[in-house]
């Protein structure tokens, strides 16, 4: 489902590449987690895998298609088969939880009874059943983050990108998110998770997710690096490297899993 071959991503400010010669395959039914210090390039790697940023070298294939050769219209269609949990969530703050979660299916023309039924199941799984009809702006940060997870999974996507999906969660919330992502993989999705909080790393270990470390621009296993958990904790710090916003005329292709940008949705 996802294949990175010798991928290079340059630092936006020049100097050494953020990612150099990255190789990765994520198959159907598999969850792969990438950990890295803030600013290491993990979020840019996902942006490149979504076609938001061009790779500066190598090849990225998603669902068997080389992203560098795809037309924008083909890329847009492909993204409708992908669920994304962005770090900044991009929720419609003045709408209900249910509306946020069902919107992708409603855009697809799915009948409301089916969309609501699917949303109810997901929200209960994520501990949000009582909040289904609440406005998003009345929720805690942890609850909002789980709403974004539900929205990403509502279409039963073939591929899921989750960018630090437990950064606002306590241990219980992290378990709920981990279970939902694991269920998506069990249903046949390929799932790529970025994160560095200890709770998510513990979930990855308990569930047998393959975990890679992005260090010095390269993806390697913890065993290859001979790093202890304490050493991993020590390296997970730094300064975030921002992903530049798309130009205004390309906002429809944002990572949100439906054609609404943060600007037009009024959430940013």
Q: What this model shows, in words?
A:
There is one protein chain. The chain has helices at residues 42-49, 72-79, 97-107, 112-125, 141-153, 171-186, 198-207, 222-225, 229-235, 262-265; strands at residues 2-9, 19-26, 31-35, 57-62, 65-66, 82-85, 159-163, 190-194, 210-215, 218-221. By secondary structure, it is of the alpha/beta class. It has a single domain (2-87, 159-265), classed as P-loop containing nucleotide triphosphate hydrolases (Rossmann fold, 3-Layer(aba) Sandwich). The model is unreliable at 238-268 (pLDDT under 50).
Give the secondary structure arrangement, pairings included.
Layout: E1 2-9, E2 19-26, E3 31-35, H1 42-49, E4 57-62, E5 65-66, H2 72-79, E6 82-85, H3 97-107, H4 112-125, H5 141-153, E7 159-163, H6 171-186, E8 190-194, H7 198-207, E9 210-215, E10 218-221, H8 222-225, H9 229-235, H10 262-265
Parallel strand pairs: 3-8, 3-9, 6-7, 7-8
Antiparallel strand pairs: 1-2, 1-4, 4-5, 9-10
Helix pairs in contact: 3-4, 3-5, 5-6, 6-7
């Amino acid at each position: 489902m996802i294949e990175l071959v010798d991928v290079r991503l340059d630092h936006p400010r020049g100097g050494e590449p953020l990612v150099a010669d990255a190789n990765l395959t994520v198959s159907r039914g598999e969850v792969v987690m990438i950990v890295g210090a803030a600013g290491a390039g993990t979020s840019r790697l996902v942006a490149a895998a979504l076609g938001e940023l061009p790779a500066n070298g190598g090849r990225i294939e998603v669902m068997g298609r080389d992203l560098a050769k795809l037309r924008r219209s083909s890329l847009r269609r492909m993204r409708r088969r992908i669920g994304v949990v962005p770090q900044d969530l991009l929720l419609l703050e003045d709408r209900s939880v249910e509306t946020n979660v069902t919107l992708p299916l409603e855009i697809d023309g799915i009948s409301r009874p089916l969309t609501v039924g699917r949303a109810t199941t997901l929200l209960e799984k994520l501990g949000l059943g009582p909040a289904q009809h609440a406005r998003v702006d009345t929720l805690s940060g942890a609850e909002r983050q789980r709403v974004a997870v539900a929205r990403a999974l509502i279409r039963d996507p073939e591929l899921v990108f989750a960018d630090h999906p437990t950064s606002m969660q306590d241990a219980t919330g992290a378990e709920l998110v981990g279970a939902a992502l694991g269920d998506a993989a069990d249903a046949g999705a390929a799932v790529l998770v970025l994160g560095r909080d200890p709770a998510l790393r513990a979930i990855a270990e308990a569930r047998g997710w393959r975990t890679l470390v992005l260090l010095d621009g390269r993806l390697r296993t913890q065993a290859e690096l001979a790093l202890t958990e304490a050493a991993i904790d020590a390296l997970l710090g730094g300064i975030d490297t921002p992903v530049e916003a798309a130009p205004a005329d390309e906002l429809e292709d944002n990572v949100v899993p439906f054609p609404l940008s943060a600007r037009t949705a009024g959430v940013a």
